[in-house]
Write a structure and sequence with these properties.
The radius of gyration is 18 Å and the shape is globular. The chain has a single domain (41-166), classed as dinb family like domain (Four Helix Bundle (Hemerythrin (Met), subunit A), Up-down Bundle). It has helices at 4-24, 44-66, 83-93, 99-118, 122-126, 139-146, 148-174. It starts with a helix and ends with a helix. By secondary structure, the protein is mostly helical. It is 66% helix and 0% strand. This is ClbS/DfsB family four-helix bundle protein.
C-alpha cells in the first residue's frame, strides 16, 4: 500500500500532466486566445500564473515556517476572507507574461514544491501540529491544496477554455 506522501506525489504529477495535456490539445497558434466569460481567468496564462503564484506563496510560508517564523497567510496585506481581492491582484500582476513564460515558470515551481514534499517523511507530512507554523493542521493540507487540488480546479477551467477555442475553430471552418 502506498503512503499518503507517495499518493500526494503521484496525484500531483498526474494532475499536473493532465493540465498541460489540455493546453497542448489546442493548436499552439490558438493557445493565447481569451474567451468571453464573466470569470476572472479568461485564458490559459491567467490560470497558469494563478497556480504559479500560489506555489510561490506556499514556498514562502514553508520557508518562513521552517525558519521558526509565523508566516503571514495568505499574503501580506490580505486575510483568508479577502482572498478574492488577492486573486484579482495576482491576475493583474501577470497580464504582461506570455503563455510560454507562464508554463516555464509553473513547471519550475511545480518541481520545487514536489521537491519540498520529497524532503519529508510520511509522518512529518501527515501529523497534525508536527510543525508549529501549520497550527492545528499538517503539511499535507498545505501541499495538497497547492498541488493536485488546485490542479484539478485548473483542469476544469482549462477544459472550458479549450472547448470554447475548439468550438470557435469549428465555426470558423463552417464560415
Amino acid at each position: 500500500m502506498k503512503s499518503k506522501k507517495e499518493n500526494l506525489l503521484l496525484d500531483s504529477d498526474k494532475s499536473f500532466k493532465a493540465l498541460l495535456e489540455i493546453i497542448e490539445s489546442v493548436p499552439s497558434r490558438k493557445r493565447t486566445i481569451s474567451i468571453e466569460t464573466q470569470e476572472r481567468d479568461k485564458n490559459f496564462r491567467d490560470i497558469i500564473m494563478h497556480l504559479y503564484e500560489w506555489h510561490t506563496m506556499l514556498e514562502r510560508w514553508y520557508r518562513e515556517g521552517m525558519d521558526g517564523d509565523v508566516p503571514f497567510m495568505p499574503a501580506p496585506g490580505y486575510k483568508w476572507r479577502t482572498i478574492k481581492l488577492l486573486n484579482m491582484q495576482i491576475w493583474e500582476n501577470y497580464q504582461d507574461v506570455t503563455l510560454n513564460q507562464a508554463i516555464k515558470k509553473l513547471k519550475l515551481s511545480h518541481e520545487r514544491v514536489m521537491e519540498l514534499i520529497r524532503l519529508h517523511t510520511n509522518e512529518e507530512i501527515m501529523t497534525k501540529k508536527y510543525y508549529k507554523w501549520t497550527k492545528t493542521s499538517n503539511l499535507y493540507s498545505y501541499f495538497a491544496a497547492n498541488t493536485f487540488n488546485h490542479y484539478n480546479w485548473a483542469i476544469k477551467k482549462c477544459e472550458v477554455i479549450a472547448s470554447s477555442i475548439k468550438e470557435g475553430e469549428k465555426q470558423e471552418f463552417v464560415k
